[in-house]
Amino acid sequence: MKISKNSKCPCGSGLKYKNCCLKYHKGANPKNALCLMKSRYSAYAVGDYKYIIKTTHKISPYYEKNMQKWIESIRDFSKSDFKKLEIIDFVENENEAFVEFRAYIDDFIMQERSYFIKEDKWYYVKGVENENK
Ligand SMILES: [Zn+2]
């Protein structure tokens, strides 16, 4: 998806990308897991694979050992049309958080309850079932 600094941020904040998720993609730490989740969605939309890799915890089942393969799959996914992100639920405590969202990508809707943990900063771990609430 073609997104410039002056485009609206893919995360749906209504702000320009340069005033929203770009600062995280450039190195600022998201203040919470919700912010991380949104900036990861934006990173997929702009094809910032480095950010996706950097914010995925190494214990994640999605942490791909084959880096080249992972980068290619992120780049490929980024060609999709990231239409809209809806946040359904956000629960956070000191070092764990859950964000449930619905992402409208091309003609499908992806719904996930994502699990995040905080160490030096927040990391994405994986999607979990609802009973883990
Ligand atoms: Zn944003």
From TrEMBL:
Pfam family of the protein (one): SEC-C
Source organism superkingdom: Bacteria
Gene3D superfamilies: 3.10.450.50
Domain YchJ-like middle NTF2-like intervals: 33-127
Record's protein name: YchJ-like middle NTF2-like domain-containing protein
Species the sequence originates in: Caminibacter mediatlanticus TB-2
